[in-house]
From TrEMBL:
The keyword Signal applies. It is found in: Periplasm. The lineage of its organism: Bacteria, Pseudomonadati, Pseudomonadota, Betaproteobacteria, Burkholderiales. InterPro entries: ABC_SsuA_sub-bd, SsuA/THI5, TAT_signal, TAT_signal_bac_arc. The keyword Transferase does not apply. Its main location: periplasm. NCBIfam families: SsuA_fam, TAT_signal_seq. One of its GO terms (molecular function) is ATPase-coupled transmembrane transporter activity. This is Taurine-binding periplasmic protein. It comes from Achromobacter veterisilvae. Keywords: Signal, Transport. Residues 45-259 form the SsuA/THI5-like domain. Belongs to the bacterial solute-binding protein SsuA/TauA family. Pfam families: NMT1.
Length: 333
């Protein structure tokens, strides 16, 4: 588990922010408040991209610049070092930084729930989790899918590394490894998730909705959270409020009119229109009206993130459990 711990903690806290690659965005009239957003082609960044392309930020007097990152750790590092102001990140990466005591950022929103586009895919002969005994599962270590696998095996009373071999396979290589028979099961997220599911003889055994915390708290193994640099929040509170207004306007469009978002999003993802629409429809998009309940003190969602942090400690992903509530700030909604 040492490599896993390094990737979650050291990678998130110390990854090179220089990996940020500026991506051409729209530049608005002089005088607009600048906001630097860190994103990627992952669906958690769709709202920010759509709000840029549709002019929602412009309408709020904001000039939001987009910087693309290849890894979550690079994105989080850029936020902590002040190279970007806001980003969406997988909660485990944020929890890893919290566990180190960093107070330089806050969770200010929850974009979506993507529990149906990540899961454990097996071959036809595997009917249940118990059938995985003695088999090989491929998963990318230090990922949300890794947490899902460890939790599913735990639920089934199977020991990872003893009764079931859990192998570290980079996400892009997962489809080929499954197709070649190098692994008996694959834990992946979209688009690899979709590619493997479509292979002959493959079937979905469990997705994120079978994750133990999802059942009780609605929290997946790697839920996305919208985070902002604390110094930016303190200096530009009204800007943050306008950002969130435009951001959740895009979320409402993703939820209510998914077809209308496809053309803009394919510029980011390079997916086909059909695959892009499937991606949008595969997530549950949260609107502005739902944020207060999600982020409120004592909310089921924040309690779920706390439980996720405790689970990460049990599975050796982080060293100690942070008090998650202390990093949540709903004052800008």
């Amino acid at each position: 588990m040492q490599e896993t711990r390094r990737r979650f903690i050291k990678g998130a806290a110390m990854g090179a922010a220089a990996l940020a690659l500026p991506m051409a965005g729209k530049t608005w009239a002089a005088g607009a408040q600048a906001v630097r957003y860190g994103g990627s082609a992952w669906l958690g960044h769709y709202p920010a991209w759509l709000a840029i392309q549709a002019g929602y930020f412009k309408n709020e007097g904001l000039d939001v610049g987009w910087e693309s990152f290849g890894t979550t750790s690079a994105r989080v590092s850029a936020l902590l070092s002040g190279n970007i102001d806001m980003a969406v990140t997988a909660a485990p990466a944020a929890l890893a930084v919290m566990s180190r005591g960093s107070r330089h950022f806050a969770i200010i929103g929850v974009p979506e729930n993507f529990g149906r586009v990540e899961g454990l895919i097996v071959r036809d002969g595997v009917q249940n989790l118990q059938d995985l005994k003695g088999k090989k599962i491929g998963v990318t270590f230090a990922s949300s899918a890794h947490l899902l696998v460890l939790n599913l095996l735990d639920q089934a009373g199977l020991k990872a590394g003893k009764e079931v071999a859990v192998l570290n396979v980079p996400a892009p290589e997962m489809p080929a490894a499954f197709q070649a028979g190098q692994i008996d099961a694959a834990a992946a997220w979209t688009p690899q998730f979709n590619a493997i599911r479509s292979m002959p003889g493959a079937r979905l055994l469990a997705d994120d909705t079978q994750f133990s915390l999802y059942k009780d708290y609605g929290v997946t193994p790697g839920p996305d959270v919208l985070v902002a640099r604390r110094a930016f929040l303190d200096k530009h509170p009204e800007t943050v409020k306008r950002f969130l207004k435009a951001y959740f306007r895009a979320n409402e469009q993703l939820r209510a009119q998914p077809e209308s978002t496809v053309a803009a999003l394919t510029e980011l993802t390079k997916l086909s229109a059909a695959d892009q629409l499937e991606m949008v429809k595969g997530a549950d998009w949260y609107g502005a009206s739902e944020q207060g309940a999600l982020l409120a003190p004592g909310s089921k969602y924040i309690d779920g993130l706390q439980q996720l942090a405790e689970m990460m400690v049990r599975y050796g992903q982080i060293d100690k459990t942070p008090p998650v509530r202390e990093w949540v700030d709903s004052a800008y909604l």
